[in-house]
Amino acid sequence: MLRLALREEAARHLPDRAVMLARVARGRARPARPALLRLRPLAAAGAVAVVLALSIAGVRLAGGGPDHAPVSGPAPGPPPGPPSAAPPVSPSAAPPVSPSVTPPGGREPRGSASSGATRRPPGTTDSFLSSQGAVDPGSHRGWSQGNVTLRTGRTVSSLRVTVVVARTAGAAGAGRWSTVPATLLTSDVSERADRIVYRFVLREGVTLPAGTYVFAVQYSHATGGRSPAADTYAATAADGRTQAQVAGGF
Questions:
Q1: Residue 190: CB partners within 8 Å, gap ≥ 6?
Q2: Host H or E run for residue 187
Q3: What is the pLDDT of residues 177-227, one digit of tens each?
Q4: What 3-state class would DSSP assign to 216?
Q5: Over the chain, what is the mean pLDDT?
Q6: Could you give the residue ranges of the DSSP H alpha helices within the chain?
Q7: Is the distance from CB of 123 to CB of 130 less than 8 angstroms?
């Protein structure tokens, strides 16, 4: 039944060929429309197409189109943290400076060689008296002589000269002499644990004219040379009115 009804309905909708041919003939018999009238529908259709295209493009640019994916750049990295603090720079450590050790009393022990900074100057002057100490050039590796040269500008009635030789390895007294005549002068030597002491004294009641005089002390010591840095001398002279004192090293 259903199939029969469908066939009847399809037969009713078959196009009438004669009617169609008549419509075609009538269309051909109509006068041709002007070209402008024929173009109007085409222009309208083109305008509609342009509007549609612009609308679609606008939607895509706005990111609303379903087929438009936003251009993704590189993934943003983590926010930069605070700048790391530079490690503190510690000042370079200077080597400790060892303080110089001064013996009790502020003086160097006798018999030890002192440095050049504390070595007494060889020559001094006081009033009319001047002095100069030096090691005799004739000294050698196992024997030495120290010379004290005094210059007095006045005739003196009193004179005392003392020479101290530090007791270094093997040091021992070996003699003494002076350019002052022996009849005018007395001398002696004493040896102690840390030093050898030589003394020259002008005899009482004797005067010594103005001039230059040498007082020499001799001593032996260990072979290999010896430093006179710790050796000293002192001299005192008077002319009856003024007293002068000098001292120094070698």
A1: 196, 197, 199
A2: strand 185-191
A3: 999 999 999 999 999 999 999 999 999 999 999 999 999 999 999 998 899
A4: strand
A5: 73
A6: 2-12, 17-29, 35-61
A7: yes
